[in-house]
Backbone:
């Protein structure tokens, strides 16, 4: 059975001030790098959900543009991109994937993280897994990416921001958390420009 990935890259990047998918990331852009990381993992099928500035993203992706689907409802919120990507998987004709990696473009990750999460989901036949880490006050948090069972694909295709999107899915199917205490990649979130240099350092990306 296959492992699918939804790479959500449709937002306007208002807090960043420039399109997050097109951030310089070493010798390429962030979205090109993330696509390469997915290809280096156990993922078999990739759907890249675009909205804002889709044509610019399409141009940088080159041959990988075949994986793009357009979310016309992207201004309505991130849940619409998740639903669009899930619907694309349902229409693909490839059958229901064993697992689905849900990755936001502003939350880069490593192939090793994806592979470990997919294996944990497979070993326990779990509905949802996600990385876990503790903050300086020893409070546990859920990190990213989230990996869900293909059993939830139809449910993902119906999420809306009005019903709290992925958050509501995780409330109905509480994730099993897998410890990743020593890897900041599971909590990095590129919301604003000041966070980019540290993220590049974590992933070994030159300025």
Residues:
């Amino acid at each position: 059975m296959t492992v699918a990935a939804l790479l959500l890259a449709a937002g306007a990047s208002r807090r960043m001030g420039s399109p997050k998918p097109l951030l310089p990331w070493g010798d390429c852009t962030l979205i090109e790098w993330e696509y390469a990381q997915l290809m280096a993992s156990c993922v078999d099928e990739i759907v890249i959900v675009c909205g804002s500035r889709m044509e610019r993203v399409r141009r940088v992706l080159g041959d990988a543009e075949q994986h793009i689907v357009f979310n016309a409802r992207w201004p309505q919120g991130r849940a619409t991109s998740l639903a669009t990507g899930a619907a694309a998987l349902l229409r693909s004709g490839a059958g229901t994937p064993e697992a689905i990696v849900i990755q936001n473009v502003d939350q880069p990750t490593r192939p090793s993280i994806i592979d470990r999460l997919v294996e944990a989901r497979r070993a326990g036949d779990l509905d949802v897994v996600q990385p876990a880490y503790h903050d300086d006050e020893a409070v546990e948090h859920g990190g990213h990416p989230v990996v869900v069972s293909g059993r939830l694909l139809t449910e993902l295709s119906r999420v809306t921001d009005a019903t709290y999107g992925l958050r509501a899915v995780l409330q109905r199917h509480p994730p099993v958390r897998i410890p990743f205490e020593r890897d900041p990649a599971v909590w990095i979130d590129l919301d604003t420009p000041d966070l980019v240099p540290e993220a590049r350092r974590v992933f070994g990306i030159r300025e």
Observations:
- The chain has a mean pLDDT of 95.
- The domain at 3-201 is CATH 3.90.550.10 (Spore Coat Polysaccharide Biosynthesis Protein SpsA; Chain A).
- The first helix runs from residue 30 to 39.
- Helices lie at 30-39, 54-61, 78-91, 111-124, 153-156, 165-172, 196-202.
